[in-house]
Design brief:
single chain, mainly alpha, 67% helix, 380 residues
Length: 380
């Protein structure tokens, strides 16, 4: 068992190294405007946010819909802290207000501050709402996200958030520089590194004693409390940690979009993240990651031709603007019908499962083996 575990770890490290090398090569070969980079960057960002939501919904059993609100807090915190002081004091961004933040921060500390700001709000919000359960908790957290979006657009917070106006001219993906060098850091590689490190930390947490306590609360709160697990403390911990990584995800999304505006973080964004979690499998980290890239690839790339009338066959006028969303909705319905527990269910992807899939892709050998065992047991 020990040798097999070491072998699996070695394969994982080699696969990650190969992925990073491929990303570096792609960014050197393909033009920066290629749609593939949009899919990779946005997919990685959504994977991080989906895994953070899965930590709550899938591993702790808390039905929360406040992810967009915490992403908003992280995005604004990052943008305000990394915007150069000279820009804040000029009229190029804050035209109608005098910015109250008269300092700026480097990239990494600002990312951490984005997560910390979201976590602080989560800690405060969690005190009352985590005493609710099921749908009531979902409604409360969704209401929090909508309230935060409205507050950030108020003129009262204008000296900080610039009101309902757009924030820009902060450190984005194209302005990241290598340390002690003027060469730009590969944007897609940066997003993958940050998202990968955060997801790895979440996986370590899930496999720790705290993660086992989260799963116990999910399975049976009464039994977990009888075992000595402090329910509120662990729920609050899960809520705060999930919000911390959602805040970092919001900061990465701000870097990807080059602008920040509260109107971008609607409840529809939370529903997209929830849909990704359900498609991937509630309680599966790798399922959330796989479904994130599939979701973004379908919505942003593979089905885009359905919006263009020039691809219509003679005598047909089906393809037009918006038809892509119709087909995408049908695909999602089919996936939910045939994969009721998601692509991965509550399991994780492993090299053993990958090898078994290639040996028996349709499960025919396994079905024959089970049928033979059933026949033997029936004859016995």
């Amino acid at each position: 068992m020990e040798a097999a575990k070491k072998k699996e770890v070695l394969f994982t490290v080699l696969a990650i190294a190969a992925l990073l090398i491929v990303l570096i090569v792609l960014e050197q070969v393909l033009p920066t405007t290629h749609i593939l980079f949009t899919v990779l960057r946005k997919g990685a960002i959504y994977a991080l946010v989906a895994v953070s939501m899965n930590l709550l919904n899938g591993f702790t059993g808390l039905f929360s819909l406040g992810q967009a609100g915490f992403m908003l807090i992280g995005a604004y915190t990052y943008a305000i802290f990394t915007m150069p002081t000279a820009v804040k004091l000029s009229d190029s961004v804050y035209k109608y207000y005098d910015c109250a933040i008269h300092f700026d921060m480097p990239l990494i500390p600002a990312l951490l501050c984005a997560g910390i700001a979201a976590a602080i709000f989560a800690a405060l919000i969690g005190l009352p709402v985590l005493r609710l359960k099921s749908d009531y908790l979902a409604i409360a957290t969704l209401g929090f996200a909508e309230i935060m979006r409205a507050i950030f657009q108020w003129d009262t917070l204008g000296p900080v958030t610039n009101g309902a106006n757009v924030l820009r001219k902060y450190i984005d993906l194209t302005s990241i520089k290598l340390p002690f060098s003027d060469k730009p850091f590969p944007p897609t590689l940066f997003v993958f590194l940050v998202a990968g490190i955060c997801i790895a930390v979440i996986m370590l947490l899930i496999n720790s004693s705290y993660g086992r306590a989260f799963k116990a609360i999910r399975d049976d709160e009464i039994a977990a409390e009888a075992m000595g697990i402090n329910l509120f403390k662990h729920k609050e911990m899960s809520f705060v940690i999930s919000s911390f990584f959602a805040g970092i995800g919001g900061a990465l999304l701000a870097m990807f979009q080059y602008t920040v505006q509260a109107a971008q973080f609607k409840s529809a964004m939370t529903y997209e993240i929830l849909l990704i979690v359900v498609i991937g499998g509630i309680g599966s980290v790798t399922g959330s990651c796989i479904s994130s890239f599939l979701f973004i690839a379908c919505s942003e790339w593979w089905l885009r031709f359905l919006d263009e009338a020039k691809y219509n066959l003679p005598g047909m006028n089906i393809l037009r603007s918006g038809f892509r969303k119709v087909v995408f909705s049908v695909i999602i319905m089919v996936i939910v019908l045939f994969f009721s527990k998601g692509i991965m269910g509550d399991r994780e992807l492993s090299w053993k499962r990958i090898g078994a899939f290639f040996k028996d892709p349709f499960g025919l050998k396994r079905k024959k083996k089970l049928a033979a065992e059933a026949e033997v047991s029936g004859n016995g």
